[in-house]
Amino acid sequence: MGNTESNAYRNHLSRFLPEEQSDIDGVFDTLSGSSGSSGAKNGKATKKTVTLAALQAYVRESLPEQMTVRLYNGMKSIDLTGKSSGLSEQIAKEQFLIFMSNLLKGNADEKITIIMRMISKTEKPVKGKQIQEFTEDLIMSVIHVLSYRKELKGWNLENTRDSASGVKALASQLLSELKLADGTKPVGPQLMETSFDQSVVEDWVYRVPQISVFLSVVIRQGLHVLHSLPDQTKDIVNLVPGCKGIKGRGLVSLFDIPSIIYINSHLPAELQHKWQLLFSSRLHGESFSQLCGHIVNKGPCIVILKDLDGYIFGGFASHSWEVKPQFQGDNRCFLFSVFPSLAVYTYTGYNDHYMYLNHGQQTMPNGLGMGGQHGYFGLWIDSDYGKGHSKAKPRCTTYNSPQLSAKEDFTLDAMEVWAVGDLPENAGTKGKKSILDVDPEAQALLEMTGKSRQSEGLREPIEEDEDDDN
User: What is the rounded CA–CA span in Å between residue 24 and residue 4?
Assistant: First the structure.
């Protein structure tokens, strides 16, 4: 190895802390079948390398087979000789470390050659269809490895909607950001057949941070390297929020794992670490007063609902819901669609009709609304529970969202509300206290009849310390 190459190698090495270097060394030694010391005897003569079979045997069930092959192709693309990449079928230590350095610590320019080889083994522009297949593989691998490593933080494949359609929806959403050099965005069948050169894909990787985050998760968790060390950024730590309030209740959420990841990434950073179920029509009944009782004064929330046609959509409320005849919230609120497509719609600046909740008034509309105006909300649930509308022709004035439901006036099938971030300290006690706090006789009477203070339907326990590890 010449001086210039060893200098480049040393530069890559210097990006890692000593404990990170030894972690990478340990994984490479395991992959190459060396015990660490044997490789040093004759220098080049016993140079250790990694084969595809060794990588597959090491990864085993933690990653889908096609992603392991893609990682291997990415490692192989690192050119140590300056002649041509891919000459050797085996991975040298330098290639392995530079692969780690570029994908985990590098910028879009450093990542792109590897990503292009992970998309396609040949050195030429790639088709939209190949980028789509790579992106779907990547998302599927993230879900697979986080599930395998028990890192889904209380979510699992049983308490969420099936992820198959969500993987395709998230991949389509990320691919919608692909832009040709002239600024045009191909769509539909045209996108699948369009060729994209390296500079266009690099621009996409730069603008779509999820690709780098997902690759980082797949490498760290799939190869079990650098997965517990301190350089992990917030977007990796909070990729999936902790889930509270669903365990042991037999509920399957309206969310799937890809939509949880995508919606969570659009929340303010300080709210991304935890979601707690406040209301589910399947658990708490189909009642507007039950809905209000469970969500008022609980801090920022996500509302998600499904109409009878199977469309799933909702909104993020940046402030505690309050029952009053005025609009509330701020410009951090947004609307979103989960099915049939995944998308987030943020505020336009046109008006401040972010969120609205009213009940029991004769002169103002009663219901829960987000965006638009009275009678023409981007999202509306009527206080006559079960009815709603999404009147956004051509677009909602507040969020620029299209009609979210299958029909303009829809019938509600199911609804959930999730508090995001930490619950406010006064959650449940702001304004008027519970009758159980105010009236000791009512409490005593309850206890005499064998009901606890936290009897279902009166007041539910706030499940703060639920075990996440499932």
Answer: 22
- pTM of the full predicted structure? 0.86
CB of 246 closer than 8 Å to CB of 274: no
Extract the tokens encoding 83.
């002649």
Q: Decide if 308 contacts 411 (C-beta within 8 A).
A: yes
Residues in the chain: 470
Burial 419-431 (b: 16+ CB within 10 A, else e): bbbebeeebbeee
CA distance 315 to 139: 23
CA gap 391, 301 in Å, rounded = 22
How much of the chain, in percent, has pLDDT values that exceed 90? Answer: 71
Side chain identity at residue 276, one-letter code: Q
| Pairing verdict, β 355-358 and 324-328 | antiparallel
| DSSP-derived 3-state class of residue 195 | strand
Q: How confident is the model at residue 468 (pLDDT cuts 50, 70, 90)?
A: very low
> Quick check: 434 and 293 in contact, CB under 8 A?
no
Q: Token pair of 218, please?
A: 């797949």
**And the tokens for 105?**
């610590």
Chain Cα centroid distance, residue 456: 32
Cα dist from 71 to 85, 100, 245, 327, whole Å:
15, 11, 37, 50
Contact 145, 63 (CB under 8 A): yes
Question: Do the beta carbons of residue 155 and residue 257 sit within 8 Å?
Answer: yes
Task: In whole angstroms, give the CA distance from residue 155 to residue 458.
Answer: 27
Q: Which of 33-37, 53-57, 147-151, 332-336 has the weakest average pLDDT?
A: 33-37
Residue 370 CB-half CA count within 13 A: 30
What number of CA atoms fall less than 13 Å from residue 386's CA on the CB side?
Answer: 4
Nearest alpha carbon to residue 275 among 314, 226, 307, 309: 314
Q: Are 98 and 6 in contact (CB under 8 A)?
A: no
411 contacts 306 by C-beta, under 8 angstroms: no
Among 372, 353, 367, 362, smallest CA distance to 291 is for: 367
Q: Strand pairing of 274-280 and 242-244?
A: parallel
The structure tokens 């990588």 sit at 55
